Description:
The complex is a heterodimer.
Chain A lengths: L4 H4 L11 H7 L6 H5 L10 H9 L4 H4 L12 H5 L6 H16 L5 H13 L31 E6 L2 H5 L1 H16 L4 E3 L9 H4 L4 H15 L4 E6 L2 H13 L6 E3 H7 L1 H4 L10 E4 L3 H6 L4 H9 L4 E2 L22 H6 L5 H11 L4 E4 L4 H12 L6 E4 H8 L3
Parallel strand pairs in A: 1-2, 1-3, 3-4, 5-6, 5-7, 7-8
Chain B lengths: L1 E6 L1 E3 L21 E3 L1 H17 L2 E7 L4 H11 L3 E6 L7 H14 L7 E6 L10 H9 L3 E11 L4 E7 L5 E7 L2 E5 L11 H10 L3 E4 L30 H14 L4
Parallel strand pairs in B: 1-4, 1-6, 4-5, 5-11, 6-10, 7-10
Antiparallel strand pairs in B: 2-3, 7-8, 8-9
Helix pairs in contact in B: 2-5, 3-4
Amino acid sequence: MIVELDAIRGVSLDTIYDSPEGKLIQTCIQCGTCSGTCPYGEYMEYPPRRIIKLLQHGLVDKVFDTDSMLKCVNCYACMMKCPREIHLTEVLLQLVKEQTVIKLPVVPPELQKALENNYRYGNPMGESGRKRANWVQTSSVPIRILSQNPEPVDVLWFVESYPAFHPRGQDTCRAIAKILNALGVDFAILGNEEKSAGECGLLSWESGLAEALVDYNMAIFSKYKFNRIITSDPHALDAFNFRYRMYGFKGSITHIVPFIIENIDKLKPMLHKTLGYSVTYHDSCCLGRHNGYYDEPRALLKAIPGIKLIEMVHNRINTLCCGGGGGGMWLDTYFKSQNMERLSDRRIKEAIDTGADVLAVACPYEIPRFEDALKVAGYDKKMVVRDIMELVSEAMED
Amino acid sequence: MNFIVFLKMVPDVIEELKIADDGKQLDSDWIRMKLNECDENAVEEAIILKEKFGGKVTAVALDAPELDDALFNALAKGADKAVKIIGEWKDVHSPAIAEIFAKYLRDNNLIDNQTLILSGSQAIDDIEGELVYYLGELLNLPAFGVITHVDYDSGQNSVSLVKEFAGGLRGEFSSGLPAVLGIQASENPPRYIPIAKIRAIMKSAAIEEVVIPPDGLPAGTTIEKMFEPETTGKAEMLDGSTDEIIEKLIGIFSDKGII
């Protein structure tokens, strides 16, 4: 379902009708599935269906004067459910969003800061790029940094900003390092040379920022020899798999979950600790809905002794977004000011309803988002949020 | 109107600062420079005023690492011209910087009765005081610092200003032009400029380079020693139940004579 990149290269809103994607958009039957499935559709003056209709009538400029596209969290629900298979999230909505941010009288301050930080420091939180690899010192296993030891390596692990800087993301990193080490994977990281992959610049308004980050990371990749890239961030997976390819990236990129699944036979004998948790798994929009990894995370969870998996009402293609994508990570205050419910608060109610002890996730945005949501719900003593890699690592303990 | 904005690059404190081996300065290989925050507000204010009342904005700065980024950013925001004063500007502080800027203004005949000179009200490395007052003195122009609001009356050719004082007090001033303003905060926070626009400006616009010989500058302060702040006391974490913590807090407050 991912759009053919050649079909949209260089396409703008003015030229979209000349592209194959434009032909597809013309076949829209205005069924409204997109607007209905959109988690914030009811708050948008122009939800996806209306945007398509305006585009058909040459009136799409109207959308730029509203904040409708600020409210798109890139959850891919509209796109994956469109009966005409229009690539809304990947193409049309991006183009409209880009114009929105250019024309917006004031960019919400948190988002502005995150974008500016990404440009200057290579991470949205505004941390010094020189501290990106600091977490490595807390790892229980050795981690090779390519700038210090540039020998060719099999697997380049693209750590990304939230895992590298957020304290809970660092927990996931330590777990991943331990697992890779135990599996005997020949891996290395870029360390302080790495900058954000740029997905949240790219898919949230800022193609210029994205291009700057793509140029930067591509130049760094070209310095080293490796066979494949892995990452624990589904947003980085999307960035490399989708936009980087437009700029000539030819490498192989895999999310950590399917990567570990490739090695599941080797891993299983190492999982000797019975955890005894009941777990519910949240499908990340990028990993699940966009890339179709629904079975792999569940298979990995089921491989852990003593884990009982309970599904939430909305799962797999129907998963509810945590609200962090498309720049939503930095729009919580803005959404609140518009009296909009935080999507992580909405989602956590379903997780709580399962009665599980653990909410398992596979995306670094989700840990802080759901931990906050648990506190809001007053349920943080009864449920914990854990990355699947943390659970695997725990099961490897004696 | 003719808006001239003087900018300064300062050490970026997001990066950890390192003192050089001589113990007298920051390690320049290590630090990164960024535009002084108040100067960012001064650029914004100049552009807001230009949008309201018309005119041209010129951004001027002494050469420094990463200055080009700041100047291109100002151009992308709406400045008409960016000027870099070439030279090795080490150990120059506000009195010397004011001399250089005053010379730039005089050499280029830039001051007339439509000129408003703006700069940030202060910078983290203003060890010899704030620029705008020195500049006002040298140019014999009225100078105001800590400005949070500027309005222009074309009939009177004057500006009305709001200046902040300590303790939450504010004063309203009126001044004829030309004048020198130290901006504390612009009318709106500095705007976001899409990076694509900055990258396009970098390709299309040019930064004008000007040479001003550093002759006859005031000697200024010499830094004898630079050192990291010494830790004296540390925060104490209180443990226990809520009631126990309250008891401990009350004890601490009464020991300190607060209650």
